[in-house]
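hey m, so remember when u said the tokens were messed up on ur end? i reran from scratch. heres the input so u can diff it against urs
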Amino acid sequence: MSSLFFVLEQKTEAIEHMLRHSANNASYSIQQDLSDQKKEELSKACKALKHELHDVADKFDLNKRKISQYQYISTIQSQMWENVTDAFSDKLKGYGKKVVSKGKEADPYIQNLSDLIEKLSP
């Protein structure tokens, strides 16, 4: 149950962050289409969810795990590295020749991303 709570808290924090900060990233931007009232309602819903998670964790005496910053960053870095490793052209063979051909063109960029991700090591 604690793993479920961990994921729910992370996702809730991501929603809260998105409501407070605009995102105009390389791969996506988030259209600011919610009214201030709706944002406030969603913020309250996030707080209620997090409060409920705390209450249930207390009721069932779930051990709160302590995660060091090192471990937290390393976990995220590993997931990023796994995703980028799967993007190299030699991993795309089942997607057809056209995709592999474009993949080979992208390999140096994927390698650069991999190198930059490596620098996230705490």
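this time it looks ok to me. The mean pLDDT is 89. if urs says something different then somethings off w ur setup not the seq
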